[in-house]
Amino acid sequence: MRKGSDMDAFRSGNPGTPDFRVKRYPFYLLNRLVSRYNLIIEGRLRTMGLDIPSWRVLMILGERSPRPAREIAEAAVINLSTLTRILQRMTALELVTTAPSPEDGRVTLVELTREGEEGLRDARLIASPVYEHVTRGLSPEEFEQLISLLDRLHDNLEPLVP
């Protein structure tokens, strides 16, 4: 439980208080960061014919392929019907293939093609300098703290998910 001056530090970020200030609201700051990042990355990805949702799918499949579509949707933070449309576009571009799982025909497995692997490699080359630029000046300890804090905020929301 927060007390005294500890509580004051949180009041200006709490939309339920008269002290609320948008620039102290963590979710505004996170959204502002992601929006700016996406604006920069989107323009660069477009040069290779990719959009941000397709890039997310490539990055997720870059960790492990094939992968169930539902798992990709969860990792990409998009609903399954939206992912289905993204996968249709990516299949038409020959970046991925989809097939029923041999273990469970209700599960759709998504796999990178050779073109998808090349697209992933190119997208990583595009994204890497932006990542390097945005994280410059952070020490390894600060970076680990940032990741830890973001994970904690995410985990704190979990019980509230409908």
UniProtKB/TrEMBL annotation:
A UniProt-annotated Pfam family: MarR_2
Name of this protein: MarR family transcriptional regulator
State the PROSITE patterns in the record. Answer: HTH_MARR_2
Domain of life from the UniProt record: Bacteria
Record Gene3D superfamilies: Winged helix-like DNA-binding domain superfamily/Winged helix DNA-binding domain
Q: Which residues form the HTH marR-type domain?
A: 23-155
